[in-house]
Amino acid sequence: MEVADMALADRSRTTWDSSRCHLYATASDGIYGVRVDMASERIAATSLSGVRVTGSLIPAREGYYAATGSGVVAIAGGCVKAIGGGRWMSARIDPSSGLPLMTDVSGRSFLVDDDGTEYMADPARQGEAEWRAGVELEEGERVCGAELRLRASSFDGVVEIAAGGRRRMQTVSRWRIRGPIRGVLRLKGVVCPSRPYVELRLKGRVSADMRLRSATVDVVAGGGKCV
Q1: Residue 227's closest CA among 188, 193, 199?
Q2: How does DSSP classify residue 206?
Q3: Rounded distance between C-alpha atoms, residue 157 and residue 99, angstroms
Q4: Going by DSSP bridges, is the β-strand pair 79-85/126-136 parallel, antiparallel, or unpaired?
Q5: Which of 55, 114, 177, 205 gives 20 to 30 Å between its CA and that of 224?
Q6: CB 223 within 8 A of CB 142
Q7: What are the contacts of 98-102 at 24+ separation with CB within 8 A?
């Protein structure tokens, strides 16, 4: 067995525990969990998967990603989970999105999201995007903020909050955004009157790797204030 790469299982540690440490290791015959006991000077390795990794371990929000001969795996909590298909030759972290950037045997690049979704990674390719979602409010309630969980290497457009009735809406807050968006877009300082219906809108020219995960609005009653 030949070890190819090792990484600290708990990357939140700033120093090693005085008695033991846990690592992940990739080898010629699979992926291992390694326990190092400093007190007894012993090392124990447990096989987590027999899949062979074709590159280095890639840090993720929780654990690591790794490219294999048949796809992508996520390694976290002592478990190995397949999250993507295809044959990958190399892998690295995309600096714009923070996601694994995988290259296949044809030289094409794909981003692989946490849920295993694959999509072409070509930030130079752009297109027009438009999205909106509405919410009905109770009497006396009003919107005072919003949050979009969004990733895009490039975004040039606007995000708006509109209020009114379903047939007649008026824009009450508007943000002009230009540049990359990485994760959470928090919109505060909304001055919105109490209306029965509110819409959150997004429109602009975006990179091909754009992904909108979720959208929420902050609602308060009466004279309440947003936290």
Answers
A1: 188
A2: E
A3: 23
A4: unpaired
A5: 177
A6: no
A7: 98/61, 98/151, 98/182, 98/183, 99/151, 100/58, 100/60, 100/65, 100/67, 100/72, 102/67, 102/72
Strands, E assignment, 9-125: 20-27, 30-37, 42-49, 58-59, 64-68, 71-76, 79-85, 88-93, 100-104, 109-112, 118-120
Using one digit for the tens of pLDDT, what is the confidence trace for 53-75? 877 888 777 788 887 877 778 88
Q: Return the sign of the alpha-carbon dihedral for residues 10, 12, 15, 18.
A: negative
DSSP 174-193: EEEEEEEEEEEEEE------
CB count in 10 Å sphere of residue 122: 15
The sign of the dihedral angle between the CA atoms of 7, 180, 206, 162 is: positive
Instruction: Give the single-character DSSP code of 17.
Output: -
pTM check: above 0.90: no
- Measured from the Cβ of residue 81, the count of other Cβ atoms closer than 10 Å reads 13
